[in-house]
Write a sequence for this structure.
């Protein structure tokens, strides 16, 4: 059981399901939920805070809203962008666009890395603590046999590299810390909605189901797993 939990991206589909899971199943924990958009369905006992994702000052101030000291034993970064507004995953390199690439990398790569910078110093020092970012299987370079989705894939591959590097540096002195990426499966959400029609129903998860899987995966991990990316079924995803 966790005691002090941070969920970043609490207004997203999977982020909200994480908040709900811990509010119900780990009710003795204090949950700190951060989001850019207002959370619609709030849970009693959860401390909700606003965070501006594209502003490092806001990320840093968010970390300072946590109680003093090294008290956090779980951080989940559940944010990410595949499409929004004018941005769509590219079918061809002809669709690459500088502004769109910058937007997706800022969301999927720069933001989680800066969250690590400002929130890892809040983790427990001599006890088990987990820092997990939602990545994606399509960020695996060795698993890319289809092509397409250039910027989303590349931003998640780069996120995986940040996770690896951050794990090497942080876990050198925090021997019980676990820093990983997680692939939630294909989950029914606004992010997946335009692309999930061809997915077999048994491979399409509700956010609640994915979160229950991911909670089990995190429980099974040890510090030796730091730096890697794990799928909802506990299997390591090769880089
Ligand atoms: N759904 C899937 O099938 C699937 C599969 C593989 C991986 N994932 C990963 O799981 C994570 C969550 O996805 P989801 O399905 O829950 O999507 P979602 O419902 O669309 O939620 C997206 C989240 O990303 C945040 N966000 C929006 N714009 C952002 C920006 N510019 N910078 C940083 N964050 C931004 C949103 O925060 P606000 O609402 O506060 O703006 C929200 O928390 C993502 O990292 C995604 O890549 C999902």
């Amino acid at each position: 059981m966790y005691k002090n939990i941070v969920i970043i991206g609490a207004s997203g589909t999977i982020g909200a399901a994480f908040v709900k899971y811990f509010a119900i199943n780990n009710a003795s924990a204090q949950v700190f939920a951060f989001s850019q958009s207002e959370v619609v369905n709030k849970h009693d006992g959860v401390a909700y805070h606003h965070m501006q994702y594209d502003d490092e000052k806001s990320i840093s101030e968010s970390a300072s809203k946590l109680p003093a000291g090294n008290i956090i034993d779980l951080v989940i970064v559940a944010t990410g962008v595949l499409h929004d507004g004018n941005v769509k995953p590219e079918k061809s390199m002809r669709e690459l666009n500088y502004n769109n690439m910058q937007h997706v990398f800022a969301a999927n790569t720069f933001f989680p890395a800066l969250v690590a910078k400002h929130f890892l110093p809040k983790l427990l020092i001599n006890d088990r603590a987990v820092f997990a970012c939602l990545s994606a299987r399509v960020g695996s370079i060795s698993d890319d046999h289809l092509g397409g989705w250039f910027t989303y894939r590349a931003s998640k591959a780069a996120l995986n590299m940040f996770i690896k590097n951050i794990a090497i540096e942080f876990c050198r002195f925090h021997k019980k810390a676990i820093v990983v990426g997680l692939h939630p499966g294909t989950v029914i959400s606004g992010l997946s909605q335009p692309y999930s029609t061809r997915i077999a129903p048994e491979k399409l998860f509700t956010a609640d189901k994915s979160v229950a899987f991911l909670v089990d995966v995190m429980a099974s991990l040890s510090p030796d797993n730091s730096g890697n990316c794990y799928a909802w079924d506990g299997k390591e995803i090769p880089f």
Remarks:
- The chain has one domain: 4-231.
